[in-house]
Design goal:
This protein is α+β, with helices and mostly antiparallel strands and about 160 residues long. Helix content is about 30%, strand content about 20%. The protein has helices at about 1-15, 25-30, 65-85, 105-115, and strands at about 20, 40, 45-50, 90-100, 120-125, 140-145. The longest helix has 18 residues, at about 65-85. It is globular, with a radius of gyration of 17 Å.
């Protein structure tokens, strides 16, 4: 009985984690790891402020280190989403600010690693000439939706 309960709970959680309709991507959009649009209807929306990181999870200085900052920023976003019973897979929109546009390709690979199912958020990538503190290479803000009515199986578009 307990095993059945756990199985049902896992199925429910996996369905809610996939809730949103990610519009079809062109080859270029898939290569760049973003969706042209994401459709939601209902559900709970989580708005996450722009996140930056100058130290990693161990307290080590990561100033001016794009890769370390990007990974730490996604960890911070994941922690915030977890407090709202959401996860990175629930992100439907992402705005990324980069100090150096050359890091865009590195970001694409990190996003492909995070969103392995190909359900990439709708996204904007902006090069910023300066951030609030010296040493920042990246800032990311996101919007996530959970318990939405839309999905690949239940389309909310025509």
């Amino acid at each position: 009985m307990r095993q059945l309960f756990i199985t049902v709970l896992v199925l429910i959680l996996s369905v809610s984690a996939q809730a949103a309709q990610y519009m079809d991507k062109t080859e270029f959009q898939a290569l760049r790891a973003y969706s042209p649009g994401v459709i939601t209807q209902g559900g709970k929306i989580i708005w996450v402020s722009g996140q930056t990181a100058l130290v990693d999870a161990n307290g080590q200085d990561i100033s001016n280190d794009f890769d370390a900052q990007a990974k730490q920023v996604f960890r911070l976003i994941d922690q915030i989403l977890n407090k709202a019973n959401a996860q990175l897979e629930n992100i439907v929109q992402m705005t990324v600010f980069l100090k150096d546009s050359k890091n865009g390709e590195k970001l694409q690979q990190i996003r492909k690693d995070i969103f392995q199912n190909g359900n990439y958020p709708a996204s904007s990538l902006i090069t910023a000439s300066g951030f609030a503190r010296p040493g920042i290479e990246i800032e990311i803000q996101v919007v996530a939706v959970i318990n939405d009515e839309c999905s690949k199986e239940h389309l909310c578009s025509h």
